Amino acid sequence: MSKLLEVTNLFQRFDLTKGFFDKYKFKSWKIVREEKIVHAVNGVSFDINQGDVYGLVGESGSGKSTTARTIIRLLEPYSGRIMFDGKDITHLDENAMRPIRRNIQMIFQDPYASLNPRYKVIEIVMEPLLFHNKNLTTAEAETQALELLERVGIRPEQKDRYPHQFSGGQRQRIGIARALAVKPKLIIADEPVSALDVSIQAQILNLLMDLKDEFKLSFLLIAHDLSVVKHISDKIGVMYLGKIVEKASKNDLFSNPLHPYTKLLLSSVPTIDEDPLVEPLEIKGEIPSPINLPKGCYFHERCPFARDICELDTPGEREIEPKHYVSCHIYQ
Ligand code: SF4
After folding, report:
1. What is the pLDDT of residue 16?
2. Which residues contact residue 205 at a Cβ distance below 8 angstroms, ignoring those fewer than 6 apart?
3. Residues of the chain whose pLDDT is less than 50?
4. Ligand 1 pocket test: which of 303, 314, 318, 325 has the largest number of ligand atoms within 8 Å of its C-beta?
């Protein structure tokens, strides 16, 4: 299967110190250089095959959304490489990125914030159609927009309503219709169901999977909850403090989780099994600040299995089983 997206050793940093007087401080009769750098993404590598769903999971603050925004080039990468559909897009300028962005669409956590409140829903879906197809007439765009809205479950008689007149689930459906309007190859869905009621979450995830086959889509699905990605992902990457600490096929990850953080995330998924797959683990503390990254393994301050070496040495990534990678000293 050919690769649609290849992300290699991606880094993203934000410098919070602005200007000379922020960077240099006078302390104890000396001029001292002080930098506040947010290390948001720290060497992320993964790839997505055509037609696959890649689930990226981790707590909030783990760098998932920043990774997504860097891939779509809303943020300029600090370093690394992003290949999309065989083309290196890492440093393309705005003009060169425009046709690429048509093929990579985003669905956001809060659909209300991403829909223009002054536009009727039909206009919201027509806008990208008209922007990307200069030969399309308004009537043709309206027909196509209506078909898309119907396909995602919005009835034709609702076309003239405004976003605030819809429920959260319906607004997410409108956001999906708008993303589909330009016939993308890849959809990046950033926490697409986390703001919705549990009963609605399954409906939206099922809709995305139906559309995947119908529109020949691939997905990067971002979630903080493993149960969201469990049923629909082909591969999963588990992120912690800007790094993917474990990546594997969905089946391997759920049947044989290796990294302590993955085990911890799995043990926090509610289960009705009497014999859960993994023993409950206790997690200590909070995710550390990406400004002051811990030395050694980023997870060592919270890891129940930490050894002396974990504080000193950053574990490299190893393939423990075929296509099952983990970064942890237990497996070095
Ligand atoms: Fe825990 Fe050490 Fe593995 Fe990090 S390297 S996850 S601290 S055992």
Report:
1. 85
2. 192, 193, 228, 231, 232
3. none
4. 303
